[in-house]
Design goal:
alpha+beta; three-stranded antiparallel β-sheet; 4 helices; 3 strands; globular
Length: 164
């Protein structure tokens, strides 16, 4: 009997926590959003074929009735997974070891607008941002404050894999 009461109390607390989490501001809209993951590399797709497949899927989904926006990312949102690398910022002295590493994700055009993520400055990626065009990045507010405290990251240049 005591164990049953303990389980019921735990279930009630868990349910209450889930209910409260619905009201948390995640910085993006989750209403009417459908997410899924695919792994084309498991079927032998290289990077070029994977990008073409993702572009084709985005185009097809965007054509479905009722779809307001379609975006894609290499890392699924809210999974807790991340990729990271060291950076060097052009025109600045080499960063201390503990400041070199940043996390990143590869995303598609319309990713931020699809999730209603506001941009504070600059622009979202667009269809002309390809593997063959000049590289651009969207940085988070925390990255801008950390690496560009004296000004704006707009127009700044950085490179991956800082030299040791």
């Amino acid at each position: 009997m005591a164990f049953t009461v303990l389980l019921l109390a735990g279930a009630c607390l868990f349910t209450r926590t889930l209910w409260n989490l619905r009201k948390q501001n995640l910085g993006m809209s989750t209403e009417n959003v459908i997410t899924f993951s695919i792994a084309p590399q498991l079927n032998g797709y290289d990077t070029t074929r994977t990008v073409a497949l993702i572009d084709q899927l985005r185009e097809r989904f965007a054509g479905l009735p009722g779809v307001r926006g379609v975006g894609s990312s290499e890392i699924a949102a809210l999974t807790g997974t991340d990729y990271g690398a060291n950076i060097t910022i052009e025109g600045r002295e080499k960063l201390p070891e503990d400041l070199q590493h940043i996390n990143y994700d590869a995303i598609s055009p319309k990713y931020f607008s699809t999730l209603d993520v506001p941009l504070l400055a600059g622009r979202e990626f667009n269809e002309s941002d390809t593997a063959n065009s000049p590289k651009v990045a969207v940085v988070s507010e925390s990255m801008a404050k950390r690496y560009f405290p004296e000004g704006t990251p707009l127009g700044a240049r950085f490179a991956w894999a800082a030299a040791k």
